[in-house]
Amino acid sequence: MMKRHAVIAALLAAAPATAQQAADAVTTEGTSTGEFQGLGEAASAAMQSKMDGQPTEAQDWMVAAANPLAVEAGAEVLRQGGTAADAMVAVQTVLGLVEPQSSGLGGGAFLVWYDAESGELTTLDGRETAPMAATPQLFQDESGEPLSFYDAVVGGLSVGTPGTPRLMEAAQEKWGTAEWPTLFDAAIDLAEGGFAVSPRLATLVSDDAERLQRFDETAAYFFPGGTAIAEGDMLVNQPYADVLRRLAEEGSAAFYEGEIAQAIVDRVQGAEGNPGVLSLEDLRLYDVVERDAVCADYRSFEVCGMGPPSSGALTVGQILGMMDSFDLASMSAQDAEAWRLIGDASRLAFADRGRYMADSDYVPMPTEGLVDPAYLSGRAELLEGDDALPEVTAGEPEWQHAMLWGDDQSIELPSTSHISIVDSYGNALSMTTTIENGFGSRLFTNGFLLNNELTDFSFATHEDGYPIANRVEPGKRPRSSMAPTIVMEDGAPVLVVGSPGGSRIIGYVAQAIVNWADFGMDVQQALAAPHLVNRFGTFDLEAGTEAEALEGPLQDLGFETEVRDLTSGLHAIEITEGGLRGGADPRREGIALGE
C-alpha cells in the first residue's frame, strides 16, 4: 500500500499547476511515463491521457475527481459493483483528507443525480445553514458597516452547520448498494498509514501561513514543529480516521450528536477573537433537502443542475439560453465576436443573479421565469449590437409577486472541488463540494477543517432601501455559485460536468459546455481550453494561454480586460453510444479513471 501511495505522490508532483504548465508538459521532451510504473495500469493511462491532452476512455464506469488517491478509492468501489452514490462516499472522504483546503466533513455540497432505472433527475441540497442565533447584522460592526472579508472569515463567526456527512448518508441510502462501512476503508487506511502531501496542498499551506497559524490545533497539523508541511511529506491524521470509524459504525448521527458535535461547537464558540454562534441544536436539526433540478434549453440539450440556494444552474442556464439565439458553431474559440456574446450574456445573467437569487425557502424567487426561453430570447436581443454593452441591469422575469430586491453585495472567493461519476448501471452523479474559501474558517477539529460558508451571504442587509435577498437569516442557506451539471439529450445524460472556482464556476462550466457543444472539442479539450470569464464587466483572460491574444480585440470592442491566473478544477464525463470519455482539468491534480 505504501509503495503505491509513493508512486501516486510522484504522479502528483508531475501534475501541472496552471494551463500554461499543462501545455508545456505536453510539448516538453522527456516527459516520462516511467514515473507511473507500479501504479494501476488504468490510472497510469489516465494521467498520461491528461498530460497528452486526450480524454480517458472506458466502457462500463468512470470517476473524475481532483486527486488520484480519491479517484482510486471511488474506482475500487465501482469495480466491485457499487453505484455512483457508493463511490461518491469513498471519493469525498479521501478528498477531505488529501485536499482539506477545498472540501470535507466540515463543509457542504450540492449533488445532481440521474437515475437510470427511473429515468428521473433530482438533486440533493447539502448546503450549510445559518445558526438559529444568527442575525442579518452578523457581519457588520458596531456602526452597521460590513466587516472586511477575512475579518469575517477567520474564526467561528463564519461557520455554518455542515451538511456533507448527512448528504453522503442520504445519497447512499437512496441510491447505494454497497455496505456503508466499507466505503470508508480507503480514507481510514490513508489517514492512519499516511499520505504524501501534494504540491498543491503544500503551496497553499505556505501561502496561507499567517491565517493557518492563528489557532493552535490548525497550526499543529499544518505546521508540525513550527514548519509548514512540504511536498512529499507523509502526513498522518489519526483523529480523522477515528471520526470516519464512528461514521462507518454509527452513520451520520455520530457527527451531528455526541462528542464530535460538542467538539465542533466548542471550537466555534471558543474561537479566540472571533467566536461564532453555532449550537448543538443547529447540528441536531440539520437535514438534507431533495429539490427538483433546474433545466434550461440549449441547442438539442437540456442543461440541468442545482436550483436555489445555488445560483449555478440558473446562471449557467441563462448564459446558454441567451446563446441559443446565436450560431456559435459558425465561429471559433479564438473569435472575439463569440466572446463578446458570451461575455455580455454572462454580465446580464450575473445582474439577475445579484438581484433575485437566494434561498427560495426564505425569499420568493422567479425561478421558472429566469430560464424561460421567451425571457432569455428577449434578453439576447440586447446582444445584437457590435460592441460591449456599456452597462447591464437586472431584467424583469415573470413571477407571481411584486417584491423588490436590492442588489447583492456578497463576496465569494474560489476554493471547492468537483466529482463526476457514471456507474455500470447507467446512473450519473455530479457533485460540487466545498468548505468555501481555501481552508475555510481555519478552525480544525477532530482532523478536519470547518467551513466559512456564512460569508457567502451578503454582509449588507439593504441596498438603496430595498432588502437584499441573500442577507443572513436564521436557518437560511447562503447563495452559492456551485454548478454541478448533467446535460441531457432525448431524456438521457450525455455530459456530467462541474468545477470549483468561486463565482467564476459559472463561467467555467458554461464555457466547457460551449466548447463541447459548439466548438467541436472533445471532453478533455473542452476542460483544458484557455479561460475567458466576464461576470461584472471586466473580462478575465487566463494568463499564459492563447486567451491573451484576445486582449486587444476585446478592448477594441469596449471591454476592460485583466490577464490573470484562472485555476478552475473541471471534471467531466461524456456518455456516448460507444462508451464513456472523461476529462480532468490540467490546472489541478485530478484524473478521470474508468474501465
Automatic annotation (TrEMBL):
Residues 1-19 form the signal peptide. GO terms for biological process: glutathione biosynthetic process; glutathione catabolic process. Pathway: Sulfur metabolism; glutathione metabolism. Cleaved by autocatalysis into a large and a small subunit. The keyword Acyltransferase applies. SUPFAM superfamilies: N-terminal nucleophile aminohydrolases (Ntn hydrolases) (SSF56235). GO terms for molecular function: glutathione hydrolase activity; leukotriene C4 gamma-glutamyl transferase activity. InterPro entries: GGT_bact, GGT_lsub, GGT_peptidase, GGT_ssub_C, Ntn_hydrolases_N. This enzyme consists of two polypeptide chains, which are synthesized in precursor form from a single polypeptide. Belongs to the gamma-glutamyltransferase family. This is Glutathione hydrolase proenzyme. The lineage of its organism: Bacteria, Pseudomonadati, Pseudomonadota, Alphaproteobacteria, Rhodobacterales.
